[in-house]
Amino acid sequence: MTTKRILVIDDEDGVREIIQFSLEAGGGWEVLAAACGSEGLALAEAEQPDAIILDVMMPDMDGPTTFGHLQASDRTKHIPTILLTAKAKISEQKQFINLGVAGVITKPFGVRDLVNQIRNILNWQD
């Protein structure tokens, strides 16, 4: 079985590092990281990850806008994307789901829970 590759797009260095550590240590996955939407789009096109974790609130290009660009490209529209957000209201989460994302994970998250949430959303069995 090949190792899953996940692209994390988040403008906060600390959050990106925690997610990367969590996914590598807890999931055994390879993690690619981008600090902004445009960098994430380029990495997604070039690297073709198995999934993308995408922060909602970012300067310049926010998560929903970045997701729209991913969906508009034949090279990236097939990649399941999970939005990461501090917006915990169910109505806000439903708006994100309606965009066509695979799922939504709210901040703050538990390090152990993060891997399980991703596995459940993507139906990955390790």
Description:
The structure is a single chain. The chain is of the alpha/beta class. It has one domain (5-121): Response regulator (Rossmann fold). The protein is 45% helix and 19% strand. It has a five-stranded parallel beta sheet with strand order 2-1-3-4-5, sandwiched between helices. The longest helix is centred in the N-terminal third of the chain and has 15 residues, at 13-27. The N and C termini lie close together (9 Å). The model has no long low-confidence stretch (mean pLDDT 92). Residues 5-122 form the Response regulatory domain. This is Response regulator. Keywords: Phosphoprotein. One of its GO terms (biological process) is phosphorelay signal transduction system. It comes from Aerosakkonema funiforme FACHB-1375.
